[in-house]
């Protein structure tokens, strides 16, 4: 089979790889049908690392994916403890917690101290034709959710978790920094929860157009000062909650500045240099609550339900589709943010 391996920064290669072995108990053999390119994939692609995790040997990238079960090991039950069978279409949670540490036992498997994660060194990801995955990570799909959208249930889960942390009860206004796929998913969830204004700052005009269609007040930081604009239209008050969903550079400070005193800031973006940039005085004087969002927690059933009933639109964010063999070109385009790119799907 073929797989896509990263050998160094921006060095993606299409390679012939061995076929996976038969699944062990509690595992399934999956034929991967669709993979989304994530911002965290782009960090690893451009830098050969993400945070403190360095790619020290060739690595298969990819963690947003769906597939078809081809073979089941003994006792293969899905994420809801139901049996899996051959031919099922599933979305896959790319994280494998140990289910034994303090965090797992306290109901927080996303904070597992022994976590393995697809496409994060040293664990290979899903940009290949077939792979073995834990059965417990699989979530069967209704027929109405096609493979492309199913691959995006993982980033939708990230958005759900971030909005849960934002705690929108009794909050009326929100600022979202970053109108990429995660930001646009967060926007759709926020619009379901608040009746007041929602501001989205994003430098790419085609992404701002989608934000506008989803009900936000769009602000292009290349044309206006988003902080000054939001403070002006809110009479200097700011928003109740700011959610940073960009690349976590100067945008963290912007999120703090647009948030009202006593408000809440949720950080979703990943900084390329693994540094947090925010003036201490901004957070202190406002007594802000600042929360870091770590992936997701128990979100797949909710994500599937939201897409199934049409509450969240994932398909309109898919701007490009490539074959697996064209994955290097897909990453190059996505990293350059060219040609109206919003969300790229790599289909097998």
- Compute the number of helices: 11
- Poorly predicted ranges: none
Average pLDDT score = 97
Rough shape?
globular
Spatial separation of the terminal alpha carbons: 11 Å
What is the second-level CATH architecture of the largest domain?
Answer: Alpha-Beta Complex
CATH homologous superfamily label of the largest domain: Medium-chain alcohol dehydrogenases, catalytic domain
Major β-sheet annotation: 7 strands, mixed
CATH overall fold name of the largest domain: Quinone Oxidoreductase, Chain A, domain 1
Number of strands: 20
Radius of gyration: 20 Å
Number of domains: 2
Oligomer: single chain
What percentage of residues falls in helices of 4 or more residues?
A: 25-40%
| Percent range for β-strand residues | 25-35%
Output the CATH class name of the largest domain: Alpha Beta
Helix vs. strand class: alpha/beta
Please outline the helices and strands:
Elements: E1 2-8, E2 11-16, E3 27-36, H1 39-47, E4 49-50, E5 53-54, E6 59-60, E7 64-72, E8 89-92, E9 95-96, H2 102-105, E10 116-117, E11 130-134, E12 138-140, H3 147-151, H4 153-166, E13 174-177, H5 181-193, E14 198-201, H6 205-213, E15 217-219, H7 226-233, E16 239-244, H8 250-258, E17 259-267, H9 280-286, E18 289-292, H10 300-308, E19 318-323, H11 327-336, E20 343-347
Parallel strand pairs: 13-14, 13-16, 14-15, 16-17, 17-18, 19-20
Antiparallel strand pairs: 1-2, 1-6, 3-7, 3-11, 3-20, 4-5, 7-8, 8-12, 9-10
What does this structure look like?
The chain has 348 residues and is α/β, with parallel strands linked by helices. The chain folds into 2 domains: 2-152 and 314-347, Quinone Oxidoreductase, Chain A, domain 1 (Alpha-Beta Complex); 156-292, NAD(P)-binding Rossmann-like Domain (Rossmann fold, 3-Layer(aba) Sandwich), CATH 3.40.50. The chain is 28% helix and 27% strand. The chain has 11 helices and 20 strands. The protein has helices at residues 39-47, 102-105, 147-151, 153-166, 181-193, 205-213, 226-233, 250-258, 280-286, 300-308, 327-336; strands at 2-8, 11-16, 27-36, 49-50, 53-54, 59-60, 64-72, 89-92, 95-96, 116-117, 130-134, 138-140, 174-177, 198-201, 217-219, 239-244, 259-267, 289-292, 318-323, 343-347. Strands 3, 7, 8, 11, 12, 19 and 20 form a 7-stranded mixed sheet that branches. α4 (153-166) crosses α5 (181-193), α4 crosses α10 (300-308) and α7 (226-233) runs parallel beside α8 (250-258). The radius of gyration is 20 Å and the shape is globular. The chain starts with a strand and ends with a strand.
């Amino acid at each position: 089979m073929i797989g896509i391996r990263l050998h160094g920064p921006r060095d993606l290669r299409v390679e012939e790889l061995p076929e996976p072995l038969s699944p062990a108990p509690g595992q399934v053999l999956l034929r991967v049908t669709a993979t989304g390119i994530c911002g965290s994939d782009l960090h690893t692609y451009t830098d050969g690392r993400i945070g403190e995790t360095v790619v020290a040997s060739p690595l298969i990238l990819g963690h947003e994916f769906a597939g078809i079960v081809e073979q089941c090991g003994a006792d293969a039950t899905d994420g809801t403890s139901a049996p899996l069978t051959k031919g099922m279409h599933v979305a896959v949670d790319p994280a494998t917690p140990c289910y034994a540490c303090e965090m797992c036992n306290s109901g927080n498997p996303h904070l597992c101290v022994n976590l393995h994660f697809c496409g994060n060194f040293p664990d290979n990801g899903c940009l290949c034709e077939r792979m073995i995955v834990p059965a417990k990570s699989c979530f069967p799909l209704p027929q109405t959710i096609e493979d492309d959208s199913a691959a995006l249930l993982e980033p939708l889960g990230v958005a759900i978790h971030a909005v849960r942390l934002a705690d929108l009860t009794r909050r009326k206004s929100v600022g979202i920094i970053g109108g990429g796929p995660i930001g646009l998913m967060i926007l759709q969830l926020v619009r379901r929860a608040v009746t007041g204004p929602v501001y989205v700052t994003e430098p790419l005009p085609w992404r701002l157009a989608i934000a506008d269609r989803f009900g936000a007040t769009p602000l292009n930081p290349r044309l206006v000062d988003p902080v000054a604009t939001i403070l002006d239209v809110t009479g200097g008050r700011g928003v109740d909650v700011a959610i940073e969903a960009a690349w976590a550079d100067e945008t963290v400070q912007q999120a703090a500045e647009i948030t009202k005193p006593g408000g809440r800031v949720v950080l979703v973006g990943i900084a390329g240099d693994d540094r947090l940039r925010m003036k201490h005085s901004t957070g202190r004087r406002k007594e802000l609550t600042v929360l870091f969002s770590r992936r997701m927690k128990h979100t797949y059933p909710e994500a599937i339900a939201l897409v199934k009933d049409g509450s969240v639109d994932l398909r309109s964010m898919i701007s490009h589709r490539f074959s697996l063999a064209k994955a290097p070109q897909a990453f190059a385009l996505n990293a350059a943010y060219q040609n109206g790119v919003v969300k790229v799907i790599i289909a097998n």
